[in-house]
Design a protein that fits this description.
Length: about 150
């Protein structure tokens, strides 16, 4: 004769384990997935870094243009672009002195003939970025270098 025993059945145990596995899978995908928390945090960090780089470069270029203007420089787009390009390419320029110590200019800056935009590469903490200074809009845009 079977006694009435209290306890958990095997079916209830299996269902509990399955539910826990589903919850674990959902939690892991929320953290590690393509739209997961870690990926979003890395994207936010990259966006913040680019904004900081743009701000630092804009400040350094503005300082350079102010000095160029104070010395009686011609404020036409091509002259400003060439002055900024020369400042970027000159090792001991005020532009380079205005940059934080972790910033390194890679290669030579160039001026696009059609737009007068100045293009150059900057390296920050072992990561390279392509920067473009728009003379007309007076703004710097930064992209990841290939």
């Amino acid at each position: 004769m079977m006694r009435n025993q209290k306890g958990i059945t095997l079916v209830a145990l299996v269902i509990t384990i399955i539910v826990l596995l589903i919850l674990a899978a959902v939690s892991i995908s929320m953290v590690l997935g393509p739209n997961g928390i870690l990926n979003q945090a890395n994207q936010a960090k990259e966006s913040t870094n680019k904004g900081d780089i743009e701000e630092q470069l804009t400040l350094a270029i503005t300082t350079q243009i102010s000095q160029f203007t104070a010395e009686g420089g011609d404020l036409t787009g091509v002259n400003i672009a060439n002055n900024v390009k020369d400042a970027i390419n000159t090792t001991d320029s005020e532009f380079r002195k205005a940059l934080p110590g972790s910033y390194t200019i890679e290669g030579e800056a160039t001026v696009e003939a059609t737009t007068n935009n100045v293009k150059f590469k900057v390296k920050i903490d072992d990561k390279s970025y392509s920067a473009t200074y728009d003379v007309v809009g007076q703004a710097v845009t930064v992209e990841n270098a290939e």
